[in-house]
Amino acid sequence: MADVVFQAVDLTVHFGGVVAVDGVSLSLSRGEVSCIVGPNGAGKTTFLNAISGLVPLGAGRLELRGTDISGIPAKARARAGVSRTFQHPILLEDRTVAGNVALGDQVDGRLRLLATLGVWPALRHERTVLARARAACETVGLGPQFDLPVAGLPYGAKKLVDLARALVSEPDLLLLDEPFAGLTVGEKLEMERVVSSIAADTAVVMIEHDLDLVQKMADVVHVFNFGKLLASGAYSDVIRDPDVVAAYFGTGRSRTLTNAEGSG
Predict the structure, then answer these.
(1) Given a cut of 90, is residue 120 above it in pLDDT?
(2) Number of separate domains in the chain
């Protein structure tokens, strides 16, 4: 039986009169990689933003481990077990890999202040965070770069720093917004290895445009179009769904669900 970590129930998000996510219901389970696919403007990134608390819900409910998190702010959701990355990593270029990754710890700011003042319990916590940051870097293959400045790293490594930062808080749910975008072939292979290994202990959902990658990695595929969820299931089933075929392949498009990579 699937270990369901997260459920969205009739989730709706609107910006003024525009409905960006329209009554979406789905579940995400530990041990699975779920891929969200669809054209630009389909509501994919807005859906992740709604889960992580970056945009308000118009209607619906979000449940993490059976607890309603719909009304709590983004920081509280992160502390509860929701982490995410962004399509373009947002890093502090003047800090080391360690300094950036440690920021993923969702601790109360007052405890950080006490650490700077030399208060022992807070210092002990800071050391624990640093140990978790090192472990996260080892997980994504950045152990040797732990003490290096972020500014000198290639783009693919910076995306791995962003991923390691999301892992420091040991999330139950990991949201990845186009983790493969902009990577070289070799970097994509490394990212694929890392994401697959993480999914063994975490519910992972990622936005992806490349159907070859989706077919290779996804346990479950969720197809979005105009804010609605068209279909969910195994890749082999979803790709044959009549609604999906009509929406994407009945118009002469190739084996990609989007004209170009981008947010949506």
Answers:
(1) no
(2) 2
pLDDT of residue 155: 96
Q: What is the pLDDT of residue 124?
A: 52
CA angle, 215 as apex, 213 and 220 as ends, to 5°?
A: 110
Residue 97 neighbours by CB under 8 Å, 6+ apart:
137, 142, 145, 146, 147, 148, 149, 150, 153, 161, 164
Residues 256 and 144 in one domain: no
Residues 6+ apart with CB under 8 A from 84: 48, 51, 52, 166, 174, 175, 176, 177
Could you say which of 146, 170, 194 is where a domain stops?
170
Do residues 133 and 239 both lie within one domain?
no
CATH code of 65's domain? 3.40.50.300
One-letter amino acid for residue 44 of the chain = K
Q: Which H or E run includes 55?
A: none
**pLDDT tens by residue, 186-237:** 999 999 999 999 998 999 999 998 989 999 999 999 999 999 999 999 999 9
